[in-house]
Amino acid sequence: MITTKRVLIVASIAFMAVMLYQWGHLDGREGKSSGLIGELIAAESPPKVSPVKTRARDFYAPNSEDLRPDEMRLIACGTGMPTARPKQAASCWLLELGNGDKFIFDVGTGSAERIAAMQIPYNYLDKVFLSHLHTDHFGDLDALFVGGALAGRQKPLRVWGPKGDTPERGTKYALDHLFKALTWDIAGRAGITDPRGYQPFEVTEFDYKGVNKIIYQENGVTIRSIPAIHSLDGPVSFIVEWNGLKFVFGGDTYPNKWYAKYAKDADLAIHECFVAVPDLITKFKFTPQGALAVGTQIHTAPEAFGKMMSLVKPRMAVAYHFFKDFDTTGPINDRIRTTYDGPLSLAEDYMVWNITKDDIRVRMAIYDEDVWPPPATEKPQLPDPSLRIPYSKFIVGGKSDMKDVIQPTYDEINKKYGLSEKQD
Ligand SMILES: [Zn+2]
Ligand SMILES: [Zn+2]
User: Fold this and answer.
1) Which of 221, 321, 359, 416 has its CA 20 to 30 A from that of 67?
2) Taking the model in full, what pTM does it have?
3) Nearest to 300 by CA among 275, 325, 337
4) To 10 degrees, the CA torsion angle through 323, 325, 330, 336?
């Protein structure tokens, strides 16, 4: 490889030298080749760079750019696997539209903190679409639900997801039970916080066998679902159309005919692309049999991802669902390139795509690790203290005497905000 590169470089230098020599001759400047090189360099004099002015950025900083009315912005808030790791959360995609709408596609394990890093007021993050019910695709729904309500989502969280082949394997069943699992959490907040965000999930279930059927249509945005082939009956992929742009989010699947047909000519098409089988064996410690089954039959192998994208021909293909490291990225890319030579993003967390009819710009987001909640978009509703569930006499009887050291804080806040709050 290096030898080939060197040969190419040497050949290029020789070619340029010959060209310059000939150019000089044709130009009637025999013997002045060095002068010509000097002129070429002078023509490319460095641009003026101010020592005190800002320059154009090549990264995306949340809460620093307007979204144009005709523009889509997509942010990868999770691109990894069911096994959690600091570098990659599991599947989560935040789609922002120039009309103000925002959609979350999957909310896999670890993704809630990536969503938070985007500094978007939680009232705008009230629509979640689930491709299927593996935890790497909805494992952080509880964090988004409770954390979002606490930080300014003053409305129920709406969730769209597929019915199962039985009611117990459907999205409604899963979310009704997730809400029940949060009984203690929510009960403890009654009478203390704005209650509106803690209402039960508003679930819209749809038939996973629906082929390109509309499951959402509001405000100029149409979302359709197509079936996927993965693990059990039930998984789906989503197709979003808005303002002449088409965005496809593929959930986990063996490559399927519905995606090939209905994702065609998308502006941006996401499709899973699993860890290559040799790496599943050596790095993920799968058995060879397990690696073949999971890496090629339950999921989409890189070569199959490439073949699918050669059929779909999107303006930008996006591969995810692999651990993206220095030693896995090359093999994945090489395998995809055996079957696909079009535009490609190998996704990682915090990758950002700005999509318009004329351009697709791909950057990384730079985020603040110390992020605090963004502002609420509406006034908070004061809770009704009578709804508080009291401690038992036994528990309240265990309180240490701290009233004297806490009272100055009450005095300070009461004075500053004109209140007359008292300690319990
Ligand atoms: Zn899955
Ligand atoms: Zn998955």
Assistant:
1) 321
2) 0.88
3) 275
4) 20
